[in-house]
Design brief:
The complex is a heterodimer of chains A (about 270) and B (about 70).
Chain A (H helix, E strand, L loop, with lengths): L5 E9 L16 E5 L2 E9 H4 L1 H8 L2 H19 L4 E10 L2 H10 L1 H11 L2 E10 L1 H8 L3 H12 L2 H35 L4 E4 L5 H4 L4 E11 L3 H15 L4 E9 L13
Chain B lengths: L11 E3 H8 L24 H5 L4 E3 L15
Antiparallel strand pairs in B: 1-2
Classes of the chains: A alpha+beta (about 270), B alpha+beta (about 70).
Chain lengths: ~270, ~70
């Protein structure tokens, strides 16, 4: 039966024989398949879990996805301790060792070029969040807003209503301008320390589970020698922007998931 | 650590950080050789439910902000 066939699950490709640890929870011990100086780190998985039909079914099971995604990340992180990696997307599956080798052969040039480019670099992620009510409260101290406030105090009810509307509209404008300014300035500063950057989609509150709004979601590829400076700079930005209601979330080093896109140029 | 005047914050990185990368980024290849995983995107629909199960992973994920904070020159 088709589903009883074994498949090869690909985690990442490296350019030296990787030192592989024991298998992580949900996959068999990883091993590597070598071809043309490239080493693909893989595990054998069962078609009854990962063939097209079963994979589709399993992807609907969030608990299953969670466990396997974490394992995928852990295996790559283990390899990353010793080598520069090109991480592959979750559930990249090959029908046989031969088909995997064909892929390596076909894409050897791009893979090697990517590995060369990533050598000596780390991916770090920076997310900036804004406490909007705090930022608005701070911006409400602006001279123009204070002037409107004093006008509201002495205005007749109808006029007061209009002035309040005007105040909110001005505050909206100031808030947007301030967010753009802070977000852009922070990003620009970190960019000067990075080899490459990528701005990702902002994630909604339901997903981040934070009260603050996400205003920047970016990934940075940084020369290992500059990582310390990069982190210090994030710390400085954090201190500078705190009074604006901004907070910074800096994580890393990650496998360079954001900087392995062959087809798409990033920034 | 203390001698270097560095404060390492042990960050709880949400599962989200990992999901966001592993499911959405990384090299994508297509063709007869591989099984298509375009359906992975569908998983995002259920992300909210997943995340709200309050799964955070305890890990030393950087965020070592150096202190005390200094204003840049």
């Amino acid at each position: 039966m088709e589903s009883e066939k074994e498949l090869l699950y690909l985690y990442c490709v490296v350019d030296q024989a990787p030192d592989l640890k024991e298998g992580r929870d949900w996959f068999d011990k990883p091993f590597f398949v070598q071809h043309q100086g490239l080493y693909a780190v893989v595990s054998r998985v069962s078609g009854s879990t990962f063939d097209e039909e079963n994979l589709k079914k399993n992807l609907g099971d969030l608990e299953w996805v969670k466990i396997h995604v974490i394992t995928h990340e852990q295996v790559i992180e283990d390899v990353m301790e010793r080598a520069c990696v090109v991480p592959f997307k979750f559930a990249t599956l090959f029908k046989s060792e031969d088909s995997l080798k064909s892929m390596l052969a076909e894409r050897a040039g791009m893979l090697k070029e990517t590995l060369r480019r990533l050598q000596g670099h780390e991916e770090w992620g920076v997310k900036i969040y804004c406490d909007m009510s705090r930022l608005r409260a701070w911006l409400a101290q602006n001279a123009e807003i204070l002037k409107i406030d004093s006008e509201i105090g002495s205005a007749a009810p109808g006029r007061s209503f209009i002035l309040r509307k005007k105040k909110e509209a001005r505050l909206d404008t100031f808030t947007t301008a301030k967010l753009n300014e802070c977000g852009q300035a922070s990003f620009d500063r970190l960019k000067t320390l990075s080899a490459r950057t990528r701005i990702n989609k902002l994630l909604p509150e339901e997903v981040t589970e934070r009260k603050e709004d996400m205003i920047l979601n970016a990934a940075f590829l940084i020369d290992k020698n500059k990582v310390k400076t990069f982190i210090e700079t994030v710390g400085q930005l954090k201190a500078q922007q705190e009074s604006n209601g901004l907070s910074f979330d800096c994580t890393g080093p990650w496998p360079p998931f954001n900087f392995c896109d062959f087809s798409e140029g990033t920034n | 650590m203390s001698s270097r005047d560095v404060v390492f914050e042990s960050k709880e990185v949400t599962l989200l950080e990992i999901l966001d990368r592993v499911l959405d980024k990384g090299v994508v290849i297509s063709g007869d050789l591989v099984i298509s995983v375009a359906e992975v995107d569908l998983v995002y629909i259920g992300l909210k439910a997943l995340i709200s199960s309050v799964e955070t992973m305890e890990r030393l994920r950087g965020a070592p902000f150096y202190g005390p904070m200094q204003e840049p020159n």
